[in-house]
Amino acid sequence: MRLVLLGAPGSGKGTQAARLKDHLQVPHISTGDLLRAEVAAGSKLGLEAKEIMASGNLVSDEILLGMLEDRFSRDDTKGGFILDGYPRNLAQAAALDQLLQRIGQPMDYAVQLEVPTEMLVERIAGRAKAEGRADDSPESVRRRLQVYNDQTAPVVDFYRQHGQLTVVNGVGSLDDVFTRIVEALAPAKEVG
Ligand code: ADP
Question: Rounded to the nearest whole angstrom, what is the distance from the C-alpha of residue 139 to the centroid of ligand 1?
Fold first, then answer.
């Protein structure tokens, strides 16, 4: 199954993607993780991305598309994938659509995790304490939420217009949210 998870920072995409990966037996592709790995490795790309990420802004579409093309060229994605963190704007959504058409693997499902803003802020503050991510500072969090509302929210409509969108309530225990996602995907699994 080819699946993309949509949702604001703190909506639980990463956590749910990690569980879905085991359930569906397909790789979890997180563009945030791919970028953080580049930063940790100190690559040229990582050096370019580091400050942009810490500020809460988006890394260039060109860099992201290159990274994704590279990732999708690996054999483990042939049986499907869970994409998390991409697309983050309409240009990325269109580029992804083209890329997937080109490799003959169109998206089956876009799942949006819906969580109210106050709860997002609370969750990220909790994670900041536990993990100390460079972009979890209050200023960066504000910027990330703003970028989400301005640039990423329209991507939800893109998938709605393509008839691929499923909205899932992201409030509740991790188990509850996971069950809701799996139920939302059930019809697709039956058709194959
Ligand atoms: P979150 O969903 O919690 O905001 P991610 O781990 O998905 O965190 O992303 C962290 C940062 O990595 C983003 O704020 C952005 O700077 C960069 N990034 C990740 N994915 C993309 C993307 N598709 N386009 C541009 N920048 C991205």
Answer: 15
Q: What angle do CA 156, 159, 162 make, to 5 degrees?
A: 150
Which structural domains are found in the chain, ordered by start?
Answer: 2-191 (3.40.50.300)
Q: Does ligand 1 lie within 6 Å of residue 148's CB atom?
A: no
Residue 122 in tokens: 């609370």
Is the CB of 12 inside a 6 Å radius of any atom of ligand 1?
Answer: no
Could you tell me the two tokens for 51?
A: 């400050």
pTM to 2 decimals?
Answer: 0.91
**C-alpha angle 184-121-166 in degrees, rounded to nearest 5:** 15
Structure tokens at 43: 């690559």
* Per-residue burial over 97-120, b = 16 or more CB atoms within 10 Å of its CB, e = otherwise: beebeeeebebbbbbbbebeeeeb
DSSP state of 57: P
How far is the C-alpha of 112 from the C-alpha of 117, rounded, in Å?
A: 14
pLDDT in tens, 98-142: 999 999 999 999 999 999 999 998 888 888 878 878 888 888 889
Kindly state the tokens that stand for 20: 């879905």
Residue 92 CA: nearest ligand 1 atom is 23
